[in-house]
Structure formats: C-alpha cells, structure tokens
Specification:
It contains 3 helices and 4 strands, in the order E-E-H-H-E-E-H. By secondary structure, the protein is α+β, with helices and mostly antiparallel strands. The strands form 2 sheets. The protein has a two-stranded antiparallel ribbon. Strands 3-4 form a two-stranded antiparallel ribbon.
Length: about 90
C-alpha cells in the first residue's frame, strides 16, 4: 500500500527516505503532513529545544480553593485566582 519516498530536508538539503513503515505509522497517528527534516536535523532540533526549554521559571502561590502553597509556571496576579494542580484538575 505504501512505498518508500525520497524527500529533501528543508534544514540541510540532504535527501532522506520516508519509508513505507513510517508512512503507515504517520497514517495511524492521523498525521497528514510528511516529515520536513531528516533524522539528524530532527534530533538536533529536539536537543536544542530541550536545552532551551528544559528549565521553566516557577512562582510561589497559594491555592484559592484549598489554601495550600503551590508553584505555578506564570506570575500570579491579584485579580485572578490561582489553583494548585489538584484543585485545578477538580475544576475541569
């Protein structure tokens, strides 16, 4: 059903093969776009993202629901309530 395709990496310009197995996997996951980058460039981007986004600043807050101290990934404001992860999940 699927056949190997040769694609061009938009990052480095090298040719790479989009195998039939990979195409089947993409179809099972519902992905509609073909890969744009070769394996080496995808790995390099993933590593770069991990290094840049690996540490996220957190802020101390007090849960508006239960009153427990918690850490949140945004600067709390006085005009908006902040919830701990348990209370936030219960509100969903």
């Amino acid at each position: 059903m699927y056949e190997d395709k040769t694609l061009i990496c938009k990052e480095c310009g090298a040719e790479f093969v989009f195998t039939a197995g990979e195409q089947e996997f993409y179809a099972e996951k519902g992905f509609t776009n073909e890969p744009q980058r070769c394996k080496a460039c995808r790995a390099a981007r993933k590593t770069a993202r991990g290094e840049a986004g690996g540490t996220r600043e957190t802020f101390d807050a007090v849960c508006a629901e239960c009153g427990k101290p918690c850490k949140v990934p945004f600067q709390p404001r006085e005009d908006r309530p902040v919830y701990c992860s348990d209370c936030f999940a219960a509100r969903r």
